[in-house]
Specification:
alpha+beta; Nucleoside Triphosphate Pyrophosphohydrolase; 7-stranded mixed sheet; 2 helices; 17% helix; binds 8-OXO-guanosine-5'-triphosphate; binds magnesium ion; DNA damage; 8-oxo-GDP phosphatase activity; NUDIX_hydrolase_dom; 8-oxo-dGTP diphosphatase; DNA replication
């Protein structure tokens, strides 16, 4: 049986040269690791609309615009993901963890000192380019 492929909208939210990261809860896939906020893209939803919905739900910010940064297809063994990563520099609101998740703003250069899912290494490389 083929593994399910999940399309995910991921936001690299940047403000004053810092990036917003959140901690995944223990029970989630890749739980306990840091992530860039985002989530699954629903059927008939654009990447931007999915990201806008997820960032409002998870961190209470409203994104105004976003630009494509990178797409990463990764096989975790139990699950294949296609991460559509958008760079967000234009948003309204102050980020807070609406799902009780720890959240922090990190200098770009410090990102690699946090533990992320494997696929995120390529995202961090793209941010630093
Ligand atoms: N949001 C997010 N997901 C990531 C990142 N890196 C990464 O491999 N993923 C994977 O993408 C998949 C979907 O993301 P998600 O769990 O946030 O989806 P969601 O918000 O719709 O959550 P839910 O199904 O837990 O309610 C997960 O399997 C997760 O492990 C990342 O930086 N951010
Ligand atoms: Mg999510």
């Amino acid at each position: 049986m083929s593994k399910k492929q999940v399309n995910v909208a991921v936001g690299v939210v940047e403000h004053h040269n810092q990036i917003l990261i959140c901690k995944r809860s223990a029970e989630q896939h890749q739980g306990g690791l840091w992530e860039f906020p985002g989530g699954k893209i629903e059927q008939d939803e654009s990447v931007f609309d999915a990201l806008k919905r997820e960032l409002k739900e998870e961190v209470d910010i409203t994104i105004q615009s976003a630009t494509p940064l990178i797409t990463i297809d990764h096989d975790y063994g139990d699950k294949c993901v296609s991460l559509k990563v958008l760079l967000v520099q234009d948003f309204i609101g102050e980020a807070k963890g609406l799902e009780g998740q720890p959240l922090c703003w990190v200098d770009k250069q410090q990102l690699s000192t946090y533990e992320f899912p494997e696929a995120n290494k390529q995202i961090i490389a793209a941010i630093l380019k």
